[in-house]
Design goal:
The complex is a heterodimer of chains A (198) and B (649). Chain A is mostly helical. Chain A is built from six helices and no strands. The longest helix of chain B is centred in the first third of the chain and has 35 residues. The chains are: A mainly alpha (198), B mainly alpha (649).
């Protein structure tokens, strides 16, 4: 394995560079996926039948908590990658653990939010609107859930194996994924919640 | 026993019982046979765990051929049923199932894998690479496709076939109108295969962008590689739409959501839109590689450089963009209004422009060429006029107002078979024959190949041309029978006769494989066709590492140039080569996905949850795994090269 020392560790081998490009293309596919879900949401948002409309069910507090937690976590993972570039393993792990904790907080709040929707009669089967609302949020939530496991695996590997071309590559790719989830959330926040409550 | 009732076919008939027995016997025979000849170890080591792009390509093509015969059997039954008026061979339900599975199998489990198979074998060789960017992921792609296809194929013997057409329009595809588990199979099996295809897309984009031989700039890539690059870009942006559409369908059918329902605000037209936003790019996914294959073959056998290289590339890019903005032409009659129909009419007709440019480029490549009429070339030459008929009728269909006459008639069926068969099917048969000696080191018999060619080409036209006429005359597609007074009888009989001709043609194809494998002379040269691109510069069969020395190129026909006093391709000495290790995990993952899919189809949640955990366990295993591949030493390379040179001397 040829290591190019002029580049950051995560870019230092040919294989690593291929993986990073591959993941960017995967994120392109993810954009197409969420774009489809958003398009479906906009198509069905007014098709509420006898169910509630968005303004009836959205609550500001949990949504704000979720937004703050997720946006902060995107910041802390950036700090984690910065620490990684400086070669400080411990700082990187601490920032990653903070990120995961914030992500878990987001997920917990979202689970509460879902329970609330079902409780007030906005379950999955009520109308086309509730179906797509919960599916869109749920798809994002499922991505976060997967990300929590994935991030935990990476922290464990960094702890055991240190900052190597492989572990840094994984951590960097993971940070791309995490930032992406944040971007999707900004769209959800703007076009689902804000637009729905206005 | 109540638990097992769900697996019974709701609409059984002697034909289905026969199939059940035949499938059970075949599976048993394979298992017993492999055990008896002690081949499990060989299969596992050399095939199930392989990450070699060439072997994965061969498995794709084998599976695709298998599916060709499954889809072909459906097609023959359809033509037999409609051969005479008021025929009772099949009833309406059975006919619905057959045209549904024919469409899905032929597009998703025959055309796509055949093309992906050729692309696996050829692309890395054409760009001078040692493998694809992510060999392990490539194996995952294949096994997901394979087990997805198997899941789809057991539907007609376990639980019931899908029956709402390959387009699965709602509300027909809802639980209300399609009660059996058939449409669950559709939603789940295609989902599994589709995830595999998406990963193939990512894999090949990275491979082509990052792993080309030194000197091969984008505009010096062979045309087939260009077509594959663009195809994979389409895959990456189209398949997520299908993923979402199928997921929503699954939720509507299993969890009572209201996406496509007629009540509670659902929108059935939403399905049609989502389906065709994926579905139209999908037809370009199977046609662009065909264009690439024809470009290679025509230039090789006309002994001329491909005419209009740049315009070929620009046309393909234009087609890929347009492919995403024409979807609504599939349902002009569903009431969008004149404005929307008008726009989609124009975008659709616009596709004829880049396609026409390509047709002229091929014609100009042939112009004053020294044409050699080999089997691959015959298919390519037949493609040009027949595909043009398909294209021109496509422009007819693109006229929204006229489409009210053609919509859902046999005219449409004739049109898309006139593009898909000469386009995709002829091209994969041509590519299969053309690249066969590269893979197996002997050629398929030209004589038998020509018999196959003439039966297929004539049989195809006899089958599908009459449909243009009956279609204009008003015969609707997907009708399982018609009365004698309609007068459709004689032409439908002619179609059936043509279908038998096609059957004979494909029988010749199989016979050719058998005959050539046994009797064809071995050790043909590594460049039997006197071809132009890099795949012919290495040995046949290709060694594991593809090229002992990475080639250096400076044109899109580097190999041709080097044969004709151009610069040498291979400079320098052997160096140690790094190759990926085999792995059984992709195969196991495929099986787990199959179990997951089966459990989902029958709503057996406990099994589904267990299988889901299994899938995540495989992913976790991959995350923690340390796999640095292996190295092939210089001595080993020298030995292999000596042996292979001897074989081709």
């Amino acid at each position: 394995m040829k290591i190019d020392n002029s580049l950051p560790l995560e870019y230092s081998t040919e294989e690593n560079r291929l993986k990073i490009l591959g993941f960017w293309i995967f994120l392109g596919a993810e954009i197409a996926l969420f774009a489809t879900l958003f398009a479906t949401y906009f198509t069905l948002v007014d098709r509420t039948a006898n169910g509630p409309v968005g303004g009836d069910i959205f609550e500001v507090t949990p949504v704000l908590i979720e937004t703050i937690l997720l946006l902060t976590s995107s910041f802390t993972i950036g700090l984690g990658i910065n620490a990684m570039r400086h070669g400080s393993k411990n700082a990187m792990m601490i920032f990653f653990i903070i990120t995961l904790a914030l992500g878990a907080g987001f997920l917990g709040t979202e689970i509460y939010e879902f329970k609330h929707y079902v409780h007030i009669g906005a379950g999955l089967q009520v109308s086309a609107f509730t179906s797509i609302l919960l599916t869109l949020l749920g798809t994002h939530g499922a991505h976060v859930t997967l990300g929590l496991f994935w991030g935990t695996f990476i922290v464990l590997q960094v702890k055991k194996r240190g900052l190597t071309p492989e572990t840094t590559n994984k951590a960097f790719i993971y940070s791309l994924y995490w930032h992406f989830l944040d971007v999707v959330w900004i769209f959800i926040f703007s076009f689902v919640y804000l637009k729905g409550m206005m | 026993m109540d638990y097992f009732d769900r697996f019974a076919v709701p609409h059984s008939s002697p034909m289905i019982v026969g199939s059940q027995i035949a499938i059970a016997v075949t599976v048993l025979a394979i298992l017993v046979g492999v055990t008896y000849f002690k081949k499990w170890g060989y299969l596992w080591r050399e095939w199930f765990t392989t990450v070699d792009h060439k072997r994965i390509g061969i498995m794709y093509i084998l599976a695709a051929l298998l599916m060709l015969f499954r889809g072909g059997a459906d097609a023959l039954l359809m033509r037999a049923q409609t051969a005479i008026p008021d025929n009772g061979l099949l009833d309406g339900q059975h006919y619905n199932e057959i045209f549904t599975t024919h469409g899905v199998v032929m597009i998703l489990f025959m055309a796509m894998p055949f093309i992906i198979g050729l692309m696996n074998i050829v692309t890395p060789l054409q760009i001078g690479a040692r493998d694809v960017a992510f060999p392990r992921l490539n194996a995952v792609s294949f096994w997901l496709f394979f087990w997805g296809a198997m899941l789809f194929n057991i539907s007609f013997v376990v639980g019931g076939s899908p029956d709402a057409g390959w387009t699965a329009y709602f509300p027909l595809a809802s639980v209300e109108f399609s009660e059996s588990v058939g449409m669950n199979y559709y939603a789940i099996a295609i989902q599994i295969a589709g995830i595999g295809t998406l990963m193939t897309g990512i894999n090949f984009i990275v491979t082509i962008l990052k792993m080309r031989a030194p000197g091969m700039t984008l505009m010096k890539m062979p045309m087939f590689t260009w077509s594959i690059l663009i195809t994979n870009l389409i895959i990456v942006f189209a398949f997520p739409v299908l993923t979402v559409a199928l997921a929503l369908m699954t939720m509507d059918r299993m969890f009572g959501t209201n996406f496509f329902t007629m009540a509670n605000g659902g929108s059935d037209m939403l399905w049609a839109n989502l389906f065709w936003i994926w579905g139209h790019p999908e037809v370009y996914i199977v046609i662009l590689p065909a264009f690439g294959i024809y470009s290679e073959i025509i230039s090789t056998f006309a002994r001329r450089n491909l005419y209009g290289y740049k315009s070929m590339v620009v046309s393909m890019v234009a087609i890929s963009v347009l492919s995403f903005v024409v979807w609504a032409h599939h349902f002009f009659t569903m009431g969008h209004g004149a404005m929307v129909n008008g726009i989609f009419s124009v975008t659709t007709m616009a596709i004829a422009v880049p396609t026409g440019i390509k047709i002229f480029n091929w014609l100009f490549t042939l112009w004053r060429g020294k044409i050699e009429f080999t089997v691959p070339m015959l298919y390519s030459l037949a493609f040009i006029p027949i595909f043009t008929i398909g294209g021109v009728t496509g422009v007819m269909l693109a006229m929204a107002s006229a489409d009210y006459q053609y919509h859902n008639t046999m005219f449409l069926v004739a049109h898309f078979h006139y593009v898909l068969i000469p386009g995709t099917v002829f091209s994969v048969l041509a590519g299969f024959t053309y690249w066969w000696p590269k893979i197996f080191n002997f050629q398929l018999s030209e004589r038998i190949g020509k018999w196959a060619f003439w039966f297929i080409v004539v049989g195809f036209n006899v089958t599908f041309f009459p449909m243009f006429i009956t279609g204009l005359d008003g015969q609707a597609r997907r009708m399982y029978t018609y009365s004698e007074s309609t007068g459709y009888g004689p032409l439908n009989m002619l179609s059936f006769v043509g279908a038998l001709g096609l059957l004979l043609g494909f029988a010749f194809l199989v016979y050719n494989i058998y005959w050539s494998t046994r009797y064809a002379p071995r050790n043909v040269s590594s460049d039997p066709w006197n071809a132009r691109s890099l795949e012919w510069a290495t040995h046949s069969p290709v060694p594991e590492y593809n090229f002992a020395i990475v080639p250096e190129v400076d044109s899109s026909q580097a190999f041709w140039d080097s044969k004709n006093n151009g610069p040498a391709l291979f400079k320098g000495k052997y160096k140690e080569i790094h190759m990926p290790n085999n792995s059984g995990v992709p195969f196991i993952l495929g099986i787990i996905f199959f179990v997951w899919g089966f459990a989902m189809v029958f709503s057996m949640w406990i099994f589904a949850i267990i299988a889901t955990l299994g899938i995540f366990a495989c992913m976790a295993h991959r995350s923690f795994e340390k796999d640095h591949g292996h190295h092939i030493t210089v001595e080993e390379i020298e030995e292999t090269e000596k042996k292979l040179r001897g074989a081709n001397a």
